[in-house]
Structure formats: structure tokens, C-alpha cells
Write a structure and sequence with these properties.
With 99 residues, this protein is of the alpha/beta class. The chain has helices spanning 13-27, 37-43; strands spanning 31-33, 55-57, 65-68, 83-87, 93-98. The chain has two helices and five strands. The strands form two sheets. A three-stranded mixed β-sheet has the order 3-4-5, with helices on one face. A two-stranded parallel ribbon has the order 1-2.
Length: 99
Amino acid sequence: MTTHSFKLDIPSQEEIKAKTDDMSARYLNKYIEDDDPLIRENYNISLKGIDQKNIVNKNKLPEPYRLIYPLAPVTLDLRLDRLNLYIDNTGKVTNISYH
């Protein structure tokens, strides 16, 4: 019988907080430019009039990431390395977490 072993690399609370703080400094209160037609259609997000320095294209976000829009369904899978950006109905990032 063959036994397999693997190691779960679970970050400490301090590591998660440091990553969250770093990403918050970069993306919190910024606007996400999302070219997905379903997002544009369902949320009617327009970034006209927003200063370009406050707009981040979603393709520039570090992988893996997930954009979570109001009332959007999300999977319940746990991925400690995934950046979760909570977006309001104007396209602005209002919260950031890892899970």
C-alpha cells in the first residue's frame, strides 16, 4: 500500500493581515474596470468622470482573485491565497479579504 503525504501551507493570521493590508493600500476605494459585458449590463457601471489614477483594470490584479459584486452568487470554496475584492454598485472596491 502506498501512502501519500502532502503539506498544507496555511498562512498565519499575521501573514493574512499583512497581505490584506498591502492589497488594501493598493486597491481599497479604487474603481475596477471590468470589461465583462454581463457585469456592465447588470450593474450599469460607468467610470466616466473618475480620475484614471483611481481606476484599476481587472487584468492587472494579482492572480488568483475574485470580484464580488452586490447580490452576486459566490462559491463557498476556501482558497486562502485568493484575493477577494468586494465591489459596490459604482464599481468601487469597498472591502478586501483573503479566503
